[in-house]
Amino acid sequence: MSKKLKILLAVVAAVVLFAIGGGVAVMAQYDEDTTQNTTLVAKVAAILGIKEQQLTNALAQVREQVANEAIDKWLANAVEKGKISETEETAIRNWLAQRPDPSDKEAWEAWQEARPEIAKSGFL
Known about the structure:
By secondary structure, this protein is mainly alpha-helical.
């Protein structure tokens, strides 16, 4: 597998991880901000008349949708420009769909090793 492809797939995986778990990591890193964010979520949930957990779940869902839309757009553009074939796009999508929980280090490493091969060397 080419070095550029490995970098590209690592970037795609990082975008997904950041979109899904980035907010949680940042909140955990800054304890003071966590209290403020919790208060903010509680206040917004109260204004909307919903439970905090419902709002938290909705935000997580939107974060995942935005990440998936960005990946879809990027892959479609790569196919359109001839950077990858439709078969390679499908292989990448299948690989991304199987991503494990990042906290399972062994599964995560195995998943990264299973990256699909891309034929073109000038992928990036």
